[in-house]
Design goal:
By secondary structure, this protein is of the alpha+beta class. Helices cover 51% and strands 11% of the residues. Strands 1-2-4-3-5-6 form a six-stranded mixed sheet.
Length: 255
């Protein structure tokens, strides 16, 4: 399937999910959305979680899925740490996410790939993942493991593959076995080094720092986004736009 057809398919799926979302209950992590229009859009994303959740329970270290899809998504795009994209790009889109967050998973599968295709792969912008560990204790080692994978140039692969295999939040699935399986499938070459670094005080402190940064920006849920570029006047909060178009528009304004 061509990238254009794949984007069209994802867009149709998203629009259908948004249309079905009117009767869904409000999700706690989306309370930061101020306007009713934003709220309905995000509930549409939450519906995708229900759909995706019916396919696989996730959290199984012995049965990981989606490695090929993730590799295709990021193939040929430069990576540095947890940043994907050309380091010379004028704008940066920052996602503050929790790897246990099911809404983040839905964004990673349904919305972020469109932005990667339209803005990141074309060199217009970079996209960076920053940990906002708010769901539970397991979110901290998960975030540290992603940072350690980024130190070997596989950070974005790790984040996306974790989302593809995410289990039920706070269920205890984020074990050393699970994290190691994700790291290996993500292409982390030196697992011994990765183990040392993910458990280091320095990297664990980085998870705390970005979580605090998210709070300072006024974020109360995940995923939350910010943009930075010549037109943004520094790192500017944009909340949680419910569509790829909303993220793309924010990028264009920041350039």
């Amino acid at each position: 399937m061509s990238a254009k057809k794949d984007r069209e398919r994802r867009r149709e799926e998203r629009l259908q999910a948004e249309a079905d979302a009117q009767g869904q209950d409000r999700r706690r992590r989306l309370l930061q959305i101020a306007s009713a229009a934003f709220f309905l859009a995000i509930v549409g994303v939450a519906v995708l979680i229900v759909v995706d959740g019916s396919r696989s329970s996730g959290g199984d270290a012995k049965s990981l899925e989606g490695a090929g899809e993730v590799n295709r998504q990021v193939a040929g795009i430069p990576q540095s740490g947890l940043t994907l994209g050309d380091p010379k790009a004028k704008a940066t889109l920052v996602e503050f996410g929790d790897l246990q967050c099911p809404v983040c998973k839905a964004f990673s599968e349904q919305i972020v790939p469109e932005v990667v295709d339209s803005k990141v792969r074309t060199g217009v912008a970079r996209i960076e993942f920053r940990n906002y560990a708010i769901i539970g204790e397991e979110s901290v080692p998960a975030g540290a493991a992603a940072i350690a994978a980024g130190r070997q140039g596989r950070g974005w692969n790790f984040v996306e593959l974790f989302y593809r295999n995410q289990g039920t939040e706070r269920s205890g699935y984020v074990t050393d076995e699970f994290l190691t399986a994700i790291a290996k499938k993500a292409g982390v070459g030196d697992i011994a080094r990765w183990n040392r670094e993910r458990e280091s005080k320095r990297i664990l402190a980085q998870v705390d720092r970005t979580s605090e940064e998210a709070r300072e920006l006024g974020f109360t849920g995940t995923p939350s986004f910010a943009v930075e570029g010549p037109g943004s006047g520094g790192l500017q909060s944009i909340g949680t736009p419910g569509s790829a178009e909303g993220l793309e528009a924010a990028i264009d304004s920041a350039r």
